Amino acid sequence: MAWMEFLNRPGVEGPFGALMDEYARVAEDFCATVEDVPAAVFTTERPSEDPDTRSILTICSHAIRSARGYANYIRQVRGMAIVPAAGGGGDDLSVPGAVRTRLADALRYTEATLEGLYDADAATVESLTFQVRWGPTYDPEMILEHAIVHLLRHRRQIERWGI
User: Inter-axis angle of helices 56-78 and 14-35, to 10 degrees?
Assistant: First the structure.
């Protein structure tokens, strides 16, 4: 099961273990889709009002930054250190295959962020609320559900790119 490479500890019990397993499965699907993109198409830009959707490369860079950002919301509310991402923006994603390593790093970062929450009761998790930059108030479970759907949406966007 290729998705397991995205986690240090796949199959952990409980709701957060389940969410991380599903996050890894979606990350595998996202990367497999990206890896099917020809290198020339990966970097080709299209006009767009949104700089994060001008090319498949910028979509991937956005997805990776977002994955780390979601973990950072949890880290911040838990009083944990925010660890800067390795590498730059999209410049180190020169080929589709580079996305897998960076996204796996983001998921392992998320996995480490959840240490101490895997066995937490619902009241503890629900007490860890934070407002996201786009407005709503989330808790750790909700932001992980959002993270999973975020990758699904962008995978679909790449599939429909017209390759």
Answer: 160
